[in-house]
Request: fold
Amino acid sequence: MILKIFLKELKDTLRDKRTLMMMIVIPVLIFPIILYITAGISNSFEKEAATKSIKIGFIGDAESAVIQEFMHMPKNLGKFDLEPYADQTTLEKDVKNDSLQMGLIVPNDYLENERSMKPVKCTVIYNATDLGISDRAEKYMELVEKNSEKKRYKALELDEEKLQPIVTEYKNIASKKEMIGKLAGGILPYVFIAFGFIGCMYPAIDLFTGEKERGTIETLLTTPVSRIQILIGKMAVVVLSGLLAATSALVGLFFAIKVMSLEGNAQIMDIVQSILTPGFVLMLFFLLFPLTVFFAGIMVPIAVYAKSFKEAQSIITPLNIAMVLPAMVGLFPGIELNIVTACIPVVNIVLSTKELIAGTLEPSLLFLSFGIMVALAMVAVFISYKRFDKETNVVL
Reply:
């Protein structure tokens, strides 16, 4: 009987175009669209910032080595025009109002310090809110400093290598899979939780509040089927809808990374493909199943209690924020899965998934996290049953 109710409700759910949009279409398309727009805008701004012609004002002797270096700056670092200024106040004012994009102050005693082999303090003025200017300023000055150092070494007849007693080599022993898991592994559970919750929401409202509004719940309750069987059949559809929406979001994310011509795309795809093995996917669903049941368990009592679709939606929608906020913990570096975090609902699943992606998940913490969520899911189902078994809640 549970299976018959499940298939009947699933058939009705799949006929609802709005539910299908929320379960499949939107999750699949959202990431390709977001990545395409983000990558396009970002590349456009970066290209414009790196190639646009800017104005640089300077104070100091035009014959000094610093200014001469700017006059012979390689063209691949971007075009610019040099303009002399008499005072610093005017220079800073023009940079502030964007008449100039960068200012350079070379001290008056530059030649004297250069002859006496003393360091020269040059000041670079820029507006950090102007996209790309700080990067260009750093590149210009790095080149000036490097060329000036070489000239001074040559003047002092020094071997540059002899002035560098230690050369440090850094070796990262963490695999790329671990790096992805620790630094960006929180994105995947965040996606699953956000879309899993949304995927559960519309079927939960439609299968309980919607039936009350349509007046079909009374007919269902007159059949020789127990309340618990009806509840389990309906909740199974809600859980399946949540898992389907989360899976669709994962497919959309995978498709976006594979198709979009992003920088480092091939390397990222190799790592993603090494992570998304059948074993990993099964373990991921193993973790997410009790979480989705928990979502369904907190939605069903609300849907049963609500008198209309609009009322149920207005109550359940804010809960999405309450569920997604803990999921954001996985995006923060330094927060690890331990005995304490394994006992915190939602957070434990997020951190377990993060560790699973990195390949560093401890079995004891996995089972503790899973056990906590199973216990909460059972409590949620019990509360749902008590609310559904109350006659005043299921009949308008």
Summary: The chain has two domains: 2-30+176-394, 55-158. The chain has a mean pLDDT of 81. The longest strand covers residues 54-59. DSSP finds 16 helices and four strands in the chain.
